[in-house]
Amino acid sequence: MRRRIAIIEDDPVIRANYADVLKKHGYEVVAYADRGEALAALRLRLPDLALLDIGLGDEVDGGFTLCRELRTLSATLPIIFLTARDGEFDTVSGLRMGADDYVTKSMSLPHLLARVSALFRRADLAREPAPAENRFERGPLKVDLNRFTVSWRGSEVDLTLTEFWLVHALSKFPGHVKNRDQLMAEAHVVVDDSTITSHVKRIRRKFGAVDPQFDSIDTVYGMGYRWKAEKS
Amino acid sequence: MEGGKKLSFFAAPGLRAKIALVALVLLVIPLVGYSYVKSVERLLRDNQQRQIVATTRAVATALQDRPRLLELRASAPATENPPRAVKAATEEVQLLLAGLARSGLRIWVVDSKLNLVAVAGSLDTLPPASADEYTFGVLERLVHRALRPVFERVLRVPAAPAEEFIPNDVVFGGREVERALDGSPAWRLRPAPADRGVIFSAAHPIWVGPTVVGVVVVEEDTDAIVWLRNRAFEQLVAVTLIAFTAAALVLLLFASRLSWRLRRLRDEAENAIDSQGRVQALVAGGHARDEIGDLSRSFSTVLGRLAQYNSYLEKLAGRLTHELRTPIAVVRSSLDNLRLQSPSPETAVYVARAEDGINRLETILTRMAEATRLEQTVRSGERERFEARIVLAGCVEGYRAAYPARRFDLALTDQPVMLRGAPDLFAQLLDKLAANAADFAAGDSPIQISLARATSEAVLRFVNTGPALPAEMGGKLFESMVSVRKERAGGAPHLGLGLYIVRLIAEFHGGRVSATNRPDNSGVVFELRFPVAA
């Protein structure tokens, strides 16, 4: 069965370009220019993944609204925000709306495709038990590379795809310092230093919500970040 | 921030000094008054002289009407004991003169042989001065008393001529007497003995028929007028001084208030835009209904517009990056599509070039967004205490890896350097300074980085050899979009935001930044001073 991706984007050229490349990779694509049209169509048949722009025509926050509406239709539908905005505030609001990832429009299409397929894999494997070889443990941390999930001391930490990749890159070799460029490469993002900083801040906060004593991510000033090797 | 030279309380010439200078105009009044007093004095003198001349004539006329009185004398032989009739005549003349004479006014009569017939009045006392009257009461009297030594030095003190007797040379050699004997009335001013003023003396012949039988001389001391003049002048000076002082005080108070209000307005206007570009409304004089209130209100209007413009600019960078992202996404997604179609080698070259261009464009956008985002972070930033030495040591370790071609010398103080701020931002500041130093450093001389403690400050320095800063750039270097880099074709884009970011972060930590050339112009010193957290 071909997977169905919905693109809701008001710029016709970008919409067409994205649709083209996704179709070429074997996905079925439906594209909409505004919120009303998209919601009416998606109510009838939910897609397997949704790519949302935030500003839709005259609606400045149309994407946020649509995301909320889609979440009420399905709690598991993978949603990626695709936007020209990259302000801290927008990122935070987007992720709070329950999106699985938040990427800027300037991201290259191969990177986008990697995200799309990763999210599909996560959605698929959530239903089946995962093979053990694609998991590793670092003390209380469990990383599942197939489902793109992370748990800390037994409880699931709800990370976005970008955040997952960052945690994965850090924890794979505990004690090794990863600089920002390496982290960006591993997370398939091209952003500035301060965005990595705020991603790390958010990851710490999410782990902190599960375990207030969490302090496994070290800032190594001038170099980058390091996952603390477990002493015990 | 560089400001114009401030006018401080004591700096000359402030508003108050100027108003006080204007008040000096009042000092012209005594000068004008003096010349007025002078002309009054002249008038009085003329009057006095005319009066004396008239008196002389009157006496002469009176004696002419009684020719007998002098004729008797003329005919009588000059003996020790004049006859009774002569004696009686003399007494009569004496009586006549006494009726006219007074203190300060002397009248005498000589016969044709210059024998003194009679004399009345004296010149040895001053006319009685009336009791001092002060228009402004006690105040004036005090001023008057204070000024008396000055007056005594400047003005001649009137004195009685103290001429008890008529000097012989006046009787026998006086010009007016001689001319009167020759038959014409005359007057002259002669100095009193011992330089005690001037005596006005008028003489008039007494005719009996065609012959002059005697002369009437009337003398008066002119110092009475001098006394009057002095008195008027002293009063004038005292009153002017009092008025001047009062006016100056009032003006000074007024000027003080004005300048206080203006200074308050200035201070507020100067601080209305804080280091992060936020504009605050003015409070000073906002409700005053005069020109200063007007000024304050129009300042507020201007500042309001500036605030609008600032927020427009702040949003502009954000909006610009947003608006440019969409076309970039169009180009990039199109290029990606093209590449996925496995283009021919010739086409691939152009695709690669186009991608290179779009990457550069994106770097620019990312940098702009970085500055904008940093401004937001700094505005809402939370501060924590951190040890700057650890951050600096870690960062320099990183730079040694990141810039293998450069050497970094680090000198750290032994004392703890705790700052209040954000270690992440502090590291970002160090990154920018290091990148800047690495770009400009020349040769293989090391980049010297030091962190020292000075009383309550931490001093961070980045020193590199290399081209000196152009003189005019010193202050502007830390502003947004200012760069001294030469354009390099194909190089990474430079927007002049790096040092602006340095300033933003330094100010977030309460610090100041400065860039100077090394004393021998062999390089540049970046110095940052931070207050140390307790």
Beta-strand percent range of chain A:
15-25%
Instruction: Please list the strands of the largest sheet of chain B in the order they lie side by side.
Output: 2-1-5-4-3
Number of domains of chain A: 2
Quote the distance from N terminus to C terminus of chain B. 26 Å
* Low-confidence region ranges of chain A: none
- Could you spell the SSE succession of chain B in H and E letters? HHHHEEHHHEEEHHHEHEEHEEHEE
Number of beta-strand segments of chain B = 12
Regarding CATH, which class of the largest domain in chain B?
Alpha Beta
Query: What is the CATH homologous superfamily assignment of the largest domain in chain A?
Result: Response regulator
Percent of sequence in beta strands of chain B: 15-25%
Largest sheet of chain B: 5 strands, antiparallel
Overall radius of gyration of chain B: 51 Å
Whole-number mean pLDDT of chain B: 79
Which structural class fits the helix and strand makeup of chain B?
alpha+beta
Give a concise summary.
The complex is a heterodimer of chains A (232) and B (534). In chain A, 42% of the residues lie in helices and 21% in strands.
Question: What brief labels describe this structure?
Answer:
heterodimer; A: 232 residues; alpha/beta; Rossmann fold; Arc Repressor Mutant, subunit A; 2 domains; five-stranded parallel sheet; four-stranded antiparallel sheet; 8 helices; 12 strands; globular; B: 534 residues; alpha+beta; Beta-Lactamase; Helix Hairpins; Heat Shock Protein 90; 3 domains; five-stranded mixed sheet; 13 helices; 53% helix; rod-shaped; disordered N terminus
